[in-house]
């Protein structure tokens, strides 16, 4: 995939991590034409929001379907086929080799960009140790990024802290989608590896996922426009 997109709007993904379809629709209406790309994950999908994927796509928006698929190969294949039929632009797969191979096979011939989830931005080295991994986040991310590249994924999801090193490994043609984006001075919440919008772009991220700093703001449109302005300055 070519990640040389034209503007900040192409690179900002607003996370619709809300509790109902009605709330998500209100956010989309409020943000209007200032935002063209949205993320739908488990929270909204399981609250009746999955049909929004096709509806947003039909209205000219793009959708990042964040389902973090991980299952036996046949199940992953069928899930990826369904996501492509829904009209999603991006889909996440946990970066286990068997799951990524199945996903790449299923997405062949479609416009769906597959993203390998490396290590969640809410985790640190202590969390990996508690989960039974005898490695560091840096080393695990590096391994999974190289596997995603070699298997033929369209990109990866990683924290801004790893973006620069990842870009050196995968070159300019794969996407690096970074959650954990927080404007300067904002609360990091449950995220442990965060960066500002400009910092993430400077490090090599192609797309930024921003949720609460926009959806939790009193003036959501103004919050989105402030982030877009910072991104535009960094891109420029």
UniProtKB/TrEMBL annotation:
Gene: pyrF
Self-association and partners: Homodimer.
Catalyzed reaction equations: orotidine 5'-phosphate + H(+) = UMP + CO2
SUPFAM superfamilies listed in its UniProt record: Ribulose-phoshate binding barrel (SSF51366)
Stored InterPro entries: Aldolase_TIM, OMPdecase, OMPdecase_bac, OMPdeCOase_dom, RibuloseP-bd_barrel
Gene3D superfamilies linked: Aldolase class I (3.20.20.70)
Family: Belongs to the OMP decarboxylase family. Type 1 subfamily.
Statement: the UniProt record of this protein carries the keyword Lyase: yes
HAMAP family noted in UniProt: OMPdecase_type1_B (MF_01200_B)
Keywords: Decarboxylase, Lyase, Pyrimidine biosynthesis
EC supergroup of this enzyme: lyase
Name of the protein this chain belongs to: Orotidine 5'-phosphate decarboxylase
Pathway it works in: Pyrimidine metabolism; UMP biosynthesis via de novo pathway; UMP from orotate: step 2/2
EC nos: 4.1.1.23
Function: Catalyzes the decarboxylation of orotidine 5'-monophosphate (OMP) to uridine 5'-monophosphate (UMP).
Residues of the Orotidine 5'-phosphate decarboxylase domain: 11-227
GO-annotated molecular function: orotidine-5'-phosphate decarboxylase activity
């Amino acid at each position: 995939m070519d990640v040389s997109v034209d503007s900040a709007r192409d690179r900002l993904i607003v996370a619709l991590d809300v509790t109902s379809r009605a709330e998500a629709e209100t956010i989309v209406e409020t943000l209007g034409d200032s935002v063209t790309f949205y993320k739908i994950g488990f929270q909204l999908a399981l609250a009746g929001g999955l049909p929004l994927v096709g509806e947003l796509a039909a209205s000219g928006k793009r959708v990042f379907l964040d389902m973090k698929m991980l299952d036996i190969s046949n199940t992953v294949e069928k899930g990826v086929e369904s996501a492509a039929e829904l009209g999603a632009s991006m889909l996440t797969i946990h970066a286990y080799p068997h799951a990524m191979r199945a996903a790449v096979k299923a997405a062949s011939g479609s416009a769906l960009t597959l993203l390998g989830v490396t290590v969640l931005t809410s985790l640190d080295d202590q969390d990996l140790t508690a989960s039974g991994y005898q490695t560091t986040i840096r080393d695990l991310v590096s391994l999974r990024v190289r596997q995603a590249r070699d298997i033929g994924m369209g990109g990866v999801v990683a924290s801004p802290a790893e973006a620069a090193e990842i870009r050196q490994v995968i070159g300019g043609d794969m996407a690096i989608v970074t959650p954990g984006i927080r404007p300067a001075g904002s609360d990091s919440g449950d995220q442990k590896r965060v960066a500002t919008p400009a910092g993430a772009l400077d490090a090599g991220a192609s797309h930024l996922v921003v949720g609460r700093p926009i959806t939790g703001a009193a003036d959501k449109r103004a919050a989105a426009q402030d982030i877009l302005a910072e991104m535009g300055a960094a891109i420029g």
